[in-house]
Structure formats: structure tokens, C-alpha cells
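Good morning,

Attaching, inline, the C-alpha cells for the sequence recovery test we're adding to the shared suite. The designed sequence is right after.
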């Protein structure tokens, strides 16, 4: 069966190439199986070996995972890397203050000594990939219970990784594909000393902000610049002033010829998650119940945060990264629902399932039961899924107080063991660091307002089966009024007050444990977590494990019954390559989008009344460069290109991914999708799905002509 799956993957890639522009996030290792002539026929001068090679430097050696959730690309022999502004946003914000507002003003290191270190930030390269399916599944059979199967896979996986990395500084990751029908190992090299080199002001890097997010036409210079540092032997090392710029195995030359309609485009990166095999009832559940609930929760938070940020610059700086994180998925889910409904995703899934059942009825009737069992599982899991989403939205994207209180759970609950292990001091020191980081980006009054608003939604939406002591308390003592409850909570808790929290940690003693345990915010946190961990989580994960088994069988059945379909493994934050072309789109009747935008569009969107912190402010220096048409070597025919669209299939994690031309040159950085395209995590439509790219020439123009940091451009290799 494994050989069968591999054949199907290779078949789908091969059959896919004649059209170029198509869905798919392909494992670069498998491109080695393709005939180089097929690439050349479609306009690529690259060979599979140019794209992925273990024996010589290749494109993959310039592509990196940035911070665990984005992609970046190396562009100089001194470890200079480009990623998106929104990927570096949290780091830019961490260095910002009212005195040095890098979010508003931008930041540019004019020499290496001025580059800023970023504790905790890592980047990871993929050294090589290997199909380890047979090794991982050794000893596994279809008759096993899932927990027994998973236990064997876990032991096998650990052994494979240990053997692969023994005696080296490399790491190893093994991921499942096609719901566990196939496994690949990724040997990794992770660098820990990453320094901020440059970032445009948010008026460029985030131009259009929430209004333009997920929208085309786009005019955003969404990029930031970092540098990788290594030890004297060019190996990964923790930050040290003695570290030197990393010498990469490969870096991408910069394509200066620009793009035109129909040009081939290749994307390389670490896409995060797709769900292309979801059955119809799961798609219906997402569009009708899951997304609306999550949108409602985030909309409540954003309405409060946005108003506060607009009114107060200090809050704007404190909450910039958090607001961006909350709003991104919020708008994406709205667009996803619109696209899935407009393109009749539910109905198309039903049509596919009808075909599946017809084939199963004639070829293998055992497959019919899989879809039936999936529906039963889905119905059982729905209430747990919604309750879990409510909990996660409240804890992770709602008020910060409860999440901060949870940081003290370990020392409060496990104090005796920490005392025995003489680890109390170390735990207190960790809490001091977390406290400093927390209050740097925290406002008590704002957080209280968010708490009250989201708690009201939580109480309205939580299934009556999952009621906890907290709901009973708010009902009996506070007349079901979350606002009154929040007021009392924030008044009494020490975790909303930096001085009180610091006093506890500075004078930490055995009595401090009682103080933590009796704190009202800690009690609320414990009640919410205990309710989740006892009433929701166990059954959710039991049903999820059952669903994973059924999905593994379902996908295997699909590939067996319909071998002529193009199959690619769902994204899972592993290195993927995709092919497309530069092109516009026509997402609605009577609407035709061109493939490219220019600086002229920036000026058309410009609002002269906006402040530097508002969405459509344009810096005076940029206006001056536009008026003088001072574009240097980066303009084209008297215009300054800014962004373009292509038909590469992307998702979250592809932010910062290099867009590469037919010869292997960097032509842009992927940073978004059009709103109509957000549905592509579940269903790709080649007519409307477009990724949005900042043109590399605009990146260089901003670095050189706007920022005056030409020394960075001079590090790069510019090619026609």
C-alpha cells in the first residue's frame, strides 16, 4: 500500500505540471523523481536537483522556517534573511518604546554593531528528507487498537530520530502524511542567534492594516530584515558578541527584471495546515457553527482593543502585536466562509461522496461504512469542539489576566515537589521574567473590559452540560452580570497589578503559595481549566483519535478507488514547494483584477488626515520619492511596482515564503491571499485562488531609496 501511495503522489505531481497553475503543496524530495524535461517544457530552467538536493547546494538551503510559524529566505553570503514585516512584528514591537517607536518609525541598523538580538527567536533549515514509512510502521497492523498502534509508532519514531542524529548537532522531526498512511523524516539545523537588521515603518510594512488585510489590490511593503549568526565554525550557537554572520550553503540572487502576466512562479516554504479531505458534514459544521462562534469572540475583543489603541499611543504600542494576532484569523474566517459558500463547497463535497459511494459499492463495499462511521463520530464530537473553541478563544485570545494567572499554576500545585527538587528558586526566577514580559504589554482597564465582554459570550454559548462553579457563582452572587463580576475580580486580584505580583515574587515564601491559591483570578483560572480538563478535553481527544483512524481509512479508500485524482498531502508545517504563475483573477461577475499594483496605488489610498499610526498614512519621504519618480534601478517604465498576485497554493506558514522565477531568482515575498482565496485551506479553486506577493524590487527600493540602507542591498547579488 505504501508503494501505491507513493505512486499516486508522484502521478499527481507529474500530471499536474502541464497546467502549472494548480493546487498542491508538494514534498520537494519527490520532485527528484520527475523528468527535468517536464519542468523545462513549462518554462522552468530549474531541474529537480536545483530545487532539492542533498549532495550539492540547492534552493532548499536558502529557505528557512522563521520563528516556528513563518518562512524566510537567505539573500546574502553573510546570513542576511528576508521575511514578512508581520512575521517580525512581535520582535519589532519588543524593541519598541515611546522613546524608540520602531513600529511607527521603522528601524535600520547601519552597521552590524547596531543589529538587535532577539532572545528566543530561532530559524531552522531542512538538511535532508527521508521516507521512513516502513520503519515507523514496523510492527503495526490493521487489527490493533489505536493506543497500541500509537505506542509502537512513538517508540519506532524515537529510535529512528536518535539513530539519524547520533553524534551530530542536527535535530530530527518525523511527521505523518495522509493521516498516517505515510511518514517522512526531516533532519534539521536550528540557529539561535538571530538579529533584527531592518524594518520599514508600519505605514509601509502594514500599509492598509486591517482594512486591506486579505484583500486585493494590495499596496503593502510587508517585509523585515534579520541576520543569522553562528559560532566561529559556522555552527548554531546561543547569542554571543563573538558570534559571526552565518555563511549559508545557498542564498538566492535577486531578480531585477520584474514579472509579467503568465510568468512561471515557484513558492518554497512551510505551509501550516490544510484540510482538503474533510467530508461534507464537517465543512457544513465549520461554515455554520465553528467559524461564526470564533468570529463572534474575536470581534468582541477587537472592538475594544481597536478603540483603545486609537485613543492612546502607549496602548497602541503595547497591544500592536496582540491586535494583529487576533485580527488576522478573524478576517480570514469571514473570507473563508464567504468563499466556501459562494463556491458551493458543501454541495461539491456531497457530489464527491456520492461518487465515492458508487465506486465503493462496486469495488469494495467495506469502504461504505467508513463514511457512515465518520458522520456518527462527527455528531458526537460537535458539542466538545464548540466548547473547546470557546475555552481556547477566551484563554488565548481574550483577557490576558487568566492566562497570566495560569503561569503560577506549577508553583502553586507542585510546590512540594519543587521544594524537594530544590527548584523553587528557579521557578520563581522564571515567573519574574514572565511578569516583566506580561506587564510590558498589559493595560488593566482594557483587559477588564475584554474579560467582561467575552465572559458574557462564554456564558451564552457554553453547552449547559459543561456548566462549572464559575457560571453558578456569577449567576448567584453577581446576578448573571459579567461586568460586575469583572469589576470585583480585577479589584481584588494581585495578578492585575505589577507591583503586587512583584512583591509576592521578591518576598516569596511558603505563605505565598496560600496567597496564590486564594487569589480570585487564580481561582477563576483553576475553575475554567478544571472544567475543561474534566468535562471537555478527555472526550474531545477520545473522539478525535477515533476520527483520525477513520480519516486514515477514508483517505486510503479515496486513493484506492480514484487513482486518477491529483493527491498531495495536507500541509503540516513541513517544507513544501508549489508551482503557479503570475496572473490576475476575476473573482466576481464583472470584476477583473490585474496582477500588479504600483506606488501610484499607494498614493491613491493615501489619507492626508491620517496620523503615522493609522492605516492609510504615507510617510513624507515616500511621497517625495513618488513625486520625483526617484525609483533608482528598481522602477519600471516610470512606475514603482509594489505587489503582484500569482496562482501558487498557500496557507498560514507561507508568510515570508520566497517567490522564485524560472531561473531560481527571488522575485518577491509571499505575504497574504486574496479574501476569496482563504477558502483554499479546505477547497482550492484555480479561478479565484491567488497569493499576494510584495515585489522584491519594492523591498530593495524601500531599503535603499527610502531608508538609506544601501549597504544591505550591496550585500545581495542582483541579477537580470
Amino acid at each position: 500500500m505504501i508503494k501505491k501511495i507513493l505512486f499516486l503522489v508522484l502521478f499527481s505531481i507529474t500530471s499536474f505540471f502541464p497546467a502549472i497553475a494548480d493546487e498542491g503543496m508538494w514534498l520537494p524530495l519527490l520532485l527528484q523523481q520527475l523528468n527535468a524535461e517536464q519542468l523545462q517544457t513549462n518554462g522552468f530552467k530549474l531541474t529537480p536537483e536545483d530545487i532539492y538536493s542533498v549532495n550539492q547546494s540547492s534552493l532548499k538551503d536558502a529557505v528557512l522556517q522563521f520563528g516556528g510559524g513563518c518562512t524566510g529566505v537567505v539573500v546574502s553570503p553573510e546570513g542576511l534573511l528576508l521575511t514578512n514585516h508581520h512575521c517580525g512584528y512581535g520582535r519589532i514591537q519588543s524593541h519598541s518604546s515611546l522613546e524608540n517607536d520602531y513600529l511607527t518609525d521603522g528601524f535600520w541598523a547601519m552597521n552590524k554593531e547596531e543589529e538587535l538580538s532577539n532572545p528566543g527567536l530561532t530559524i531552522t533549515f531542512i538538511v535532508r528528507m527521508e521516507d521512513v514509512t516502513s520503519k515507523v510502521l514496523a510492527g503495526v497492523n490493521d487489527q490493533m487498537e489505536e493506543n497500541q498502534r500509537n505506542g509502537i509508532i512513538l517508540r519506532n519514531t524515537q529510535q529512528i530520530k536518535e539513530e539519524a542524529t547520533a553524534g551530530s548537532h542536527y535535530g530530527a522531526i518525523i511527521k505523518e502524511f495522509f493521516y498516517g498512511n505515510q511518514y517522512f523524516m526531516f533532519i534539521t539545523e536550528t540557529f539561535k542567534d538571530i538579529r533584527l537588521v531592518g524594518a520599514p515603518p508600519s505605514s509601509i510594512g502594514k500599509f492598509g492594516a486591517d482594512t486591506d488585510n486579505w484583500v486585493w489590490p494590495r499596496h503593502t511593503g510587508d517585509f523585515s530584515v534579520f541576520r543569522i549568526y553562528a559560532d566561529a565554525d559556522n555552527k548554531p550557537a546561543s547569542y554571543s558578541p563573538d558570534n559571526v554572520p552565518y555563511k549559508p550553503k545557498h542564498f538566492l540572487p535577486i531578480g531585477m527584471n520584474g514579472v509579467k502576466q503568465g510568468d512561471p512562479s515557484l513558492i518554497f516554504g512551510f505551509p501550516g495546515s490544510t484540510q482538503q479531505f474533510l467530508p461534507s458534514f464537517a465543512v457544513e459544521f465549520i461554515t455554520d457553527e465553528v467559524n461564526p462562534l470564533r468570529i463572534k469572540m474575536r470581534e468582541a475583543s477587537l472592538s475594544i482593543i481597536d478603540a483603545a489603541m486609537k485613543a492612546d499611543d502607549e496602548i497602541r504600542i503595547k497591544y500592536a502585536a496582540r491586535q494583529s494576532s487576533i485580527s488576522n484569523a478573524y478576517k480570514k474566517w469571514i473570507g473563508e466562509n464567504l468563499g466556501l459558500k459562494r463556491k458551493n463547497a458543501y454541495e461539491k463535497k456531497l457530489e464527491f461522496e456520492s461518487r465515492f459511494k458508487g465506486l465503493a459499492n462496486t469495488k469494495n463495499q467495506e469502504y461504505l461504512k467508513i463514511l457512515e462511521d465518520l458522520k456518527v463520530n462527527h455528531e458526537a464530537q460537535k458539542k466538545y469542539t464548540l466548547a473547546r473553541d470557546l475555552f481556547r478563544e477566551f484563554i488565548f485570545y481574550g483577557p490576558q489576566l487568566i492566562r497570566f494567572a495560569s503561569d503560577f499554576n506549577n508553583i502553586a500545585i507542585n510546590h512540594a515537589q519543587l521544594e524537594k527538587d530544590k527548584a523553587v528558586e528557579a521557578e520563581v526566577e522564571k515567573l519574574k521574567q514572565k511578569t516583566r514580559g506580561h506587564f510590558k504589554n498589559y493595560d488593566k482597564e482594557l483587559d477588564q473590559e475584554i474579560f467582561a465582554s467575552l465572559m458574557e459570550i462564554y456564558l451564552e454559548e457554553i453547552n449547559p452540560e459543561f456548566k462549572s462553579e464559575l457560571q453558578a457563582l456569577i449567576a448567584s452572587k453577581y446576578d448573571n452580570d459579567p461586568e460586575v463580576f469583572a469589576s470585583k475580580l480585577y479589584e481584588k486580584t494581585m495578578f492585575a497589578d505589577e507591583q503586587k505580583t512583584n512583591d509576592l515574587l521578591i518576598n516569596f515564601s511558603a505563605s505565598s503559595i496560600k496567597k496564590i491559591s486564594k487569589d480570585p483570578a487564580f481561582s477563576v483560572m483553576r475553575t475554567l481549566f478544571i472544567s475543561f480538563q474534566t468535562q471537555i478535553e478527555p472526550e474531545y481527544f477520545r473522539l478525535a483519535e477515533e476520527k483520525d483512524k477513520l480519516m486514515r481509512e477514508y483517505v486510503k479508500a479515496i486513493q484506492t478507488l480514484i487513482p486518477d485524482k491529483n493527491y498531495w498531502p495536507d500541509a503540516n508545517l513541513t517544507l513544501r514547494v508549489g508551482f503557479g504563475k503570475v496572473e490576475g483573477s476575476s473573482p466576481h461577475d464583472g470584476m477583473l483584477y490585474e496582477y500588479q499594483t504600483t506606488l501610484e496605488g499607494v498614493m491613491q489610498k493615501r489619507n492626508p488626515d491620517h496620523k503615522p499610526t493609522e492605516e492609510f498614512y504615507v510617510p513624507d519621504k515616500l511621497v517625495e520619492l513618488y513625486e520625483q519618480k526617484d525609483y533608482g534601478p528598481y522602477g519600471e517604465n516610470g512606475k514603482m511596482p509594489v505587489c503582484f498576485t500569482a496562482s501558487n497554493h498557500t496557507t498560514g506558514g507561507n508568510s515570508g515564503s520566497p517567490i522564485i522565477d524560472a531561473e531560481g531568482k527571488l522575485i518577491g515575498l509571499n505575504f497574504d491571499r486574496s479574501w476569496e482565496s482563504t477558502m483554499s485551506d479546505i477547497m482550492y479553486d484555480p479561478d479565484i485562488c491567488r497569493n499576494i506577493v510584495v515585489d522584491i524590487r519594492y523591498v530593495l527600493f524601500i531599503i535603499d531609496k527610502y531608508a538609506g540602507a544601501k549597504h544591505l542591498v550591496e550585500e545581495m547579488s542582483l541579477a537580470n
